[in-house]
Amino acid sequence: PAPGLLQVVKQCVRVPVFVMIRPRGGDFLYSDREVEVMKADIRLAKLHGADGLVFGALTEDGRIDTELCTALLAVCRPLPVTFHRAFDMVHDPLVALETLISLGFERVLTSGCDSSALEGLSLIKRLAEQAKGRIVVVPGGGITERNLQRILEGSTASEFHCSARSARDSAMKFRNPNVAMGASFSAPEYSIKVADVAKVRTLNAIAKNIL
Fold first, then answer.
1. Which SUPFAM superfamilies has this protein been placed in (predicted)?
2. DSSP E strand boundaries for 89-170
3. What would the pLDDT profile of 18-75 be if each residue is shown by its tens digit?
4. Is the distance from CB of 123 to CB of 114 less than 8 angstroms?
């Protein structure tokens, strides 16, 4: 997020706010310039009240980039850090988990190296068992109110991640159908994805009933 968004969010909520550091979409193999951007973004996030940071970085052969992660973790201190779903692109998730623990990450977000947390449920459970409380394994990816109970019970996870979004139609009256502002066909110009309060409440109720 931009610093302005972080500032406004911090004014609106009381829960801890973790900021994702991701200079671009695509893979998780970063150039020297992109690393400069990531370090600058971390400093700005800390300056504007971030309670924690979230990032991930891999080597070209699909392993955790320990050198880069160590450097970024140093900039993040003393805030807690989560390794995001770059984890789902690693060559060996069981080895990668030990690497994250040794580096000092507090959480790892994963879909179990599959298309969704439900599909990767067996690996998520295996990772949580391997972690033995040394790192929090957080299921994420395709979690909804329809499958949350199964995922929490099947993974033994104590936390979870989901977008809980819905589409909201734009309030624009005049619309130009001939122009697209770089959006893909799956993201129309006059539709906005927003956090859905009803979904958040439902998911929270399901989680509280299980946890």
1. CutC-like (SSF110395)
2. 107-110, 136-139, 165-169
3. 999 999 999 999 999 999 999 999 999 999 999 999 999 999 999 999 999 999 999 9
4. yes
Q: Encoding tokens for residue 7? A: 């500032």
Compute the half-sphere exposure of residue 208: CA atoms within 13 Å on the CB side of its CA. 6
| Fold annotation for 3-162 | TIM Barrel (3.20.20)
Amino acid symbol at 129: E
Cis peptide before 78, with omega less than 30 degrees from 0?
A: yes
What are the boundaries of each domain within the chain?
3-162
The SS3 call for residue 201 is helix
As beta bridge partners, residue 142 has none
Grouping H, G, I as helix, E, B as strand and the rest as coil, residue 55 is: strand
Beta strands 107-110; 18-20: pairing state: unpaired
Please list, in sequence order, all residues whose beta carbon lies within 8 angstroms of the beta carbon of residue 73, skipping any fewer than 6 positions away. 81, 103, 104, 105
